[in-house]
Amino acid sequence: MLALDRLVGSDEYQVHHLHTVIDAELKRVGLHGVPEVLIEKQADALGFPLHKLYLHKDDSHATYEKLISGYIDQLKADGVELIMYGDIFLEDLKAFRDTKLAGAGMQGVYPLWKESSHDLINEFLSKGYKTRVCAADKKHFRASQVGKEISQDWLRQVPEQVDVCGENGEFHSFVYDGPLFSAPVVHQLGEVVEKTYTFNVKNEDGSVSEHKSSFYFASLY
Length: 221
Description:
- The chain is α/β, with parallel strands linked by helices.
- The protein has six helices and ten strands, in the order αβββαβαβαβαβαβββ.
- It has helices at residues 2-9, 36-46, 61-77, 91-103, 117-126, 152-155; strands spanning 18-23, 28-29, 34-35, 50-55, 82-84, 107-109, 130-137, 171-177, 189-202, 208-220.
- The strands form four sheets. It has a four-stranded antiparallel sheet, with no helix packed on it. A two-stranded parallel sheet has the order 1-4. Strands 2-3 form a two-stranded antiparallel ribbon.
- The two termini are 20 Å apart.
């Protein structure tokens, strides 16, 4: 959201639309767990059209790449030249995005790139944005910390090894109010649930090992 705030505040760019990837079966945003309907309300409050990309549950990473590539190609055909991302320091993710964009003759815009995460979250809060923690890694957080609004008090409880912007995927949040919003996104907070995911990791020797990861999710509606 801070990246969008900066983009809107500049005279260099015109925002064409927002986009997000939705789980086709669950009708929620991936690891965030935020319902599609709240994302629609968020875009409405921000005053921008929303383009939704639907990803089916059993789709492989290759299918995800194909989905994104098709979307980028369509943007190019529509005359869009740039896509903005809120990445801060993940080099591999930025490289993935830039490679996809270059293939279509487009470029990425990264308003927050290489800035201090602490400075960014402080700027975000000082501008008056409000965001609720919707998902968090059980390795780093207690269930009681999920569903809360991010504040300086909440940040003081974040473990030292966790990026305060959640850049490594340690936690995710749903922004529901702030300077760019015409009105707050009305929503309700339900129970916090725990979900465990199993995934494979390729080791340096070429072998594959199975790993598990548990996340807490706040039920928002």
